[in-house]
Design brief:
The structure is a single chain. This protein has about 475 residues and is an alpha+beta fold. The protein contains ten helices and eight strands. It has three domains: about 325 residues, Up-down Bundle (Outer membrane efflux proteins (OEP)); about 70 residues; about 35 residues, no CATH class. The strands form three sheets. It has a four-stranded antiparallel β-sheet, with no helix packed on it. It has a two-stranded parallel ribbon with strand order 1-6.
Length: about 475
């Protein structure tokens, strides 16, 4: 059986060594502490990267709104070709300068409506203009800038929340991987100890001091322990993959954890009498949202104010019987450092000042103001509910942490007692003062005590993380 165990463990070691060698060909081994894993995750987490992009989008939004208040300059060129010119209708009269000769030739046309060809317009025209518009006063524009800056702050709070979530997820995954690694080491120790017991029992059976059934019982226990160890090996590999996933690290990377379970210190917690709610990112997000709603109310109220806009335009217009607008002869015709009125181009320009005064909009603004006030009231109710929720979380997580620490100490004591009992039973078994059944039972109790201790340790670590989060104790870079 010893050869079988040795061969099995050698095979497992070979598989791990081969896996590490294969991974080393792809990437270097990364030895990282918890702090280094958190730092890596804050730089590579997809969740944080998207939150950072949202911040950049918010910054662009500020520039987008600010651009509305800058001069808006538009150039426009329009070419028009009339397939058929609109004819002109005139009332015939001998005194009409256009139809006088026609009436003189035919007096019966006097007073009748007659249409004539449009000789005032050529079939082709070109209009080039430059328009400038500038907002002088607009309350919506001023409040829009304030809202955009507040929206950017909200995006920053979302990034902070993503960092807290990523840090907590990485920390939990790191602790879980450490505990699973410690469990594997315990399995190896228990397997070696039980294998030694089995060898000694076989010798005793050979000398006639124990029965074959005692050997079989130990062998069954050892086989079950080896099988259970293999399950935990898979769990350990899965926990390492989970850690790399939370960090944003490629799963094929070879990550080695440098922290040790033995160095972890978990301090108990006393729920503070009064917590600073602003330490919680959720509360800060709610306060920013409330400011946005206040700005919305301010915008709706200020919509009764007038808007003042100035504009100016300058252009050139020409018309021709063909499309030879840009020929050298036509384009520069009459231009000798100034514009000749006999040229084919006509200039025009204007300066405008527009004042838009709201008078009556069917009470639309009144209803919008009412909605804004109600939304602010809802946010104030949510604020009170969140404060109560934070108070409850602080008390609950503090109690859970202290309870978990007590349970961990109890399980640690149970594990130490189980070790002592197992040692005594084994000595008695070697002296023939204890049965094989008692030995196997003590081994089972020791294994169960070890599992219970590490489960309690992980529960305490998670409770500590959640307690710090509830009190807003975060250390982000």
């Amino acid at each position: 059986m010893t050869k079988k165990i040795t061969h099995l463990m050698a095979s497992i070691a070979f598989i791990f060594a081969f896996s590490l060698q294969a991974n080393a060909q792809k990437t270097d081994t990364l030895k990282m502490s918890l702090a280094e894993c958190v730092d890596y995750g804050l730089k590579n987490s997809i969740l944080i990267k998207n939150s950072t992009l949202d911040e950049e989008i918010a910054s662009s939004k500020i520039g987008d709104i600010r651009s509305i208040g800058l001069p808006q300059i538009t150039g426009q060129i329009g070419v028009q070709h009339n397939l058929m010119l609109r004819e002109t209708f005139l009332q015939a009269s001998a005194t009409n300068p256009f139809l006088g000769q026609l009436v003189a030739a035919d007096p019966s046309l006097e007073g009748k409506v007659t249409k004539i060809s449009n000789f005032f317009q050529l079939p082709n025209s070109l209009d080039a203009s430059l328009n400038v518009t500038q907002i002088i006063f607009s309350s919506s524009y001023i409040i829009g800038l304030q809202a955009a800056k507040t929206y950017k702050e909200l995006a920053q709070k979302s990034t902070e929340e993503s960092k807290i979530q990523t840090t907590n997820n990485i920390t939990k995954a790191y602790y879980l991987a450490l505990i699973n690694l410690e469990r594997i080491n315990l399995f190896n120790t228990n397997i070696q100890r039980l294998d030694s017991m089995l060898n000694e029992t076989k010798k005793l059976q050979t000398n006639g001091f124990v029965e074959q059934i005692d050997v079989s019982r130990l062998e069954v226990t050892l086989n079950n322990l080896i099988t259970e160890r293999e399950k935990f090996v898979n769990i350990m590999l899965l926990s390492n993959s989970l850690l790399k996933y939370q960090m944003g690290m490629p799963l094929e990377s070879n990550l080695v954890l440098t922290d040790k379970i033995s160095t972890l210190q978990i301090a108990p917690s006393d729920a503070p009498n009064k917590i600073d709610y602003n330490q919680r990112v959720e509360y800060k997000q709610l306060m920013v949202s409330k400011r946005l709603q206040t700005l919305d109310l301010k915008n709706n109220r200020s919509s009764y104010l007038p808007t003042l806009v100035a504009s100016a335009n300058l252009g050139m217009f020409t018309s021709n019987s063909d499309f030879g607008f840009f020929s050298t002869q036509n384009f520069f015709k009459g231009y000798d450092g100034g514009w000749d009125t006999n040229g084919i181009w006509s200039r025009y320009g204007s300066i405008n000042l527009g004042l838009q005064i709201p008078i009556f909009d069917g009470l639309s603004k009144t209803y919008k103001i009412q909605q804004s006030k109600l939304n602010i009231k809802k946010t104030e109710n949510s604020q009170k509910m969140l404060e109560n929720s934070i108070d409850l979380q602080v008390v609950q997580t503090s109690l859970t942490l202290n309870s978990s620490l007590k349970a961990m100490e109890v399980q640690k004591r149970n594990m130490e007692l189980a070790k002592q009992i197992n040692t005594v039973v084994y000595k008695k078994y070697k002296q023939g003062m204890s049965s094989n059944f008692e030995l196997i039972s003590s081994e089972s109790s020791l294994k169960e005590a070890q599992i219970n201790y590490y489960n309690a340790l992980y529960d305490a670590l998670v409770a500590k993380i959640e307690c710090d989060q509830a009190q807003g104790n975060t250390n982000l870079k």
